[in-house]
Amino acid sequence: MLTSRSSCSSGLGAIVLTLSLAGVAPAQAVSSASSSVATDVARTTPQPPTTPASGPPSTSVPEAPAPATQDGITPGVAPSGQQSGAFPPLTQQERAELQLRQQEKQRIAGVVPNFNVSYNEDAAPLSPKQKLSLAFHTATDPVSFVVAAFDAGLSQAEDDFPGYGEGAPGYAKRFGASYADNFDGTMLGNAIFPILLKQDPRYFRRGKGRFTTRFLYSISTTVWCKNDNGSHGPNYSNILGNLAAGGISNLYYPASDRGAGLTFERGFTVTAYGAFGGIFNEFWPDIAKKIFKDKMTKLQPNVAPKL
Questions:
Q1: Rounded to two decimals, what is the model's pTM?
Q2: Residue ranges with strand state E in the chain
Q3: Sign of the C-alpha dihedral computed for residues 95, 98, 104 and 107 taken in this order
């Protein structure tokens, strides 16, 4: 049975091949005849004179010599290692500006501002103007007023600073004092002194390593910081800023509470808030990843890209 099918297939193949070859020969004959007729017609038909194409005459010179090179650079060709039309590299200030814009969009759980935290280990140092802008943006964020309102309510409930009195007037005075403490501490510790002492006011998240190491690191940033030149040293900006803010508080706290005690008390309070904030900034992304999982992208601050 298999032999019969094979012979039949061979016979059909031979027939198809024969028909194909038979068709090619007439086609070639027709093609040759057509070509011969076309050639005879072309020889007997007079050709019209050729006219130049419309438009301005060409100014190109054939085989013109190549322009001379200077310092190994050929005109029209990008230098070695660069692409033609590529953008020039960003300056340090431009890199800092792009990273700062990203930072100012960071909010924990989409609400609490996280502007003063950098997720780039090699972040560009900020200019004096950028430090002022970052501090002012943080101090005037609506959440800062909410925190001051909560602190004032707690202070009044515990009858702190009785010289302010009770009721709405007492609460308003406590609210103003609490917000003034936060505003003064932010502007002095995160802008004025960092500008004068050339220190970086931001918190640089470590994000890796043992829990104890990261915990101690987050606390240490209240007294140890990164300088604008990349080195690290005592965080004089934060310490002096908190003490200066505590000294200024003597201007608006009740007379019975003023003095050196108030200065150090308010300075210590702001420092403690800063240490707690450092811990939260260090571990919040881990908390969000573990608890919220798929919602982490919305609740965790955005990580600025490296530029």
A1: 0.64
A2: 107-108, 112-113, 117-118, 203-204, 224-226, 232-234
A3: negative
**What sign for the dihedral angle of Cα 282, 286, 292, 294?**
positive
CA–CA distance, 112 with 110 (Å, rounded to integer): 7
8 Å CB contact between 242 and 270: yes
Report how far residue 79's alpha carbon sits from residue 151's, in angstroms, rounded to the nearest whole number. 61
Residue 278: burial class (beta carbons within 10 Å; 0-12, 13-18, 19+): buried
Alpha carbon dihedral 172, 174, 179, 180, in 10-degree steps, equals 110
Residue 104 contacts residue 134 (beta carbons within 8 Å): yes
* Residue 167 phi, psi (nearest 5): 75, -165
pLDDT at position 300 is 54
**Tens of pLDDT, residues 204-247:** 999 889 999 999 999 999 999 999 999 999 999 999 998 898 88
Q: Is 255 left (phi over 0), alpha (psi -120 to 50) or beta?
A: alpha
> Quick check: 182 and 97 in contact, CB under 8 A?
no
Contact (Cβ atoms closer than 8 angstroms) between residue 161 and residue 257: yes
Coil, strand or helix at 73:
strand
Both structure tokens of 66: 């190549």
For the stretch 175-205, pLDDT in tens is 999 999 889 989 999 999 999 999 999 999 9
Asked if 13 and 20 touch (Cβ cutoff 8 Å), the reply is no
Six token digits for residue 46: 């007079």
Q: Hey, what are 186's tokens?
A: 């932010």
